[in-house]
Amino acid sequence: MILEIVTPEMTLFKGEVESVSVPGIDGQFQMLDNHAPVVSLLANGSVKIFGNVQLEESVASLFKQEDGTTNFAITGGVLEMKDNKAIVLAD
Question: What pLDDT was estimated at residue 91?
């Protein structure tokens, strides 16, 4: 699946991932390939990206990579999952 993480300033990441876990307003949930379409508000927490994530040097300091996951802290936002592409509009 394709994941795109966008902030008001810029697109921080766009690439192929195995799965992504996000902090929804009703709790953390995960999406895999071919997930059903969904739109969700996001809460304060961490976007967890699973897979071989290659970050650009200019944004690598904003992410934390450990134990096979890449984490990005958010204070809120919106997620749209459709046609095997997840877009996180993050605050």
Answer: 86
